[in-house]
Amino acid sequence: MVILALDTSTRPGSCAVLRGEAVLAEVPGAPGQSHGERLPSDLMTALDRAGLSLSGVDVFAVATGPGSFTGLRVGIATMQGLALAAARPLVGVSVLDALARVAVAAGGAPRRVATWVEAWRGEVYAALYDGVTVVEPATVEHPHEILERLSRTPTRFIGDGVAAHREAIQGALGDAAVWPEDLQPALAGIIGRMALVCVEAGHRPGPADIQPLYVRRLGAGQARDAHGA
Questions:
Q1: If one looks up domain 2-94+185-209 in CATH, what number appears?
Q2: Domain ranges of the chain
Q3: What pTM, to 2 d.p., does this model score?
Q4: Which CATH number, 1.10.3210.10, 3.30.200.20, 3.90.220.20, 3.30.420.40, labels domain 96-184+219-227?
Q5: pLDDT-derived band of residue 209, with 50, 70 and 90 as boundaries?
Q6: Which residues pair with 55 in a beta bridge?
Q7: What is the pLDDT of residue 206?
Q8: Judging by DSSP bridges, how do beta strands 155-158 and 177-178 pair with one another?
Q9: Strand, coil or helix: what is 8?
Q10: Is residue 79 predicted with pLDDT exceeding 50?
Q11: With the C-alpha atoms ordered 197, 229, 220, 160, is the resulting torsion angle positive or negative?
């Protein structure tokens, strides 16, 4: 099964072509250009590097966010158009879920993973995982609100929101906080693998089913309940 995957949640983003779980080509975006300027040419470049054509794609996959609203709209609209024209399924994937899987695939401890994506105005889109199991659902908050709940629980952090707030994390958690060298990995490959799992499980969403992921602020009571889960 050939999968064409796209992530436009951040300024660079990425796209990838997979055959099954094997990534044949992954193309990082150029941060100096907008997604509107790079698409669909980046997708065609990835297909060319993989030695495939658009007609050979069985499944399309796209990041639904959270992240840059403009970037997500461009990315989703592009993939909806391609999937509709090809009469193929389009699978939407949460960027926070994808980041958690990247962190877990890297191995090591601790199992608890915090995924943070820059939300501007001093806030981050965030979710908390035990491995890849959601412990706290996606929310948008100021980092100090999240760090107060984490206390000094050993946690792996990943995402561009971590880079923006590294000092605050270190100050709150000290040695209990760890993070990979690459805080903003290319996600298109893992998004493609997650889409494959979805389709193999029998889920084949149509292009019209995909919408950007809107994240709401988590209330204090919800936060306490989630943290105690």
A1: 3.30.420.40
A2: 2-94+185-209, 96-184+219-227
A3: 0.91
A4: 3.30.420.40
A5: very high
A6: none
A7: 92
A8: parallel
A9: coil
A10: yes
A11: negative
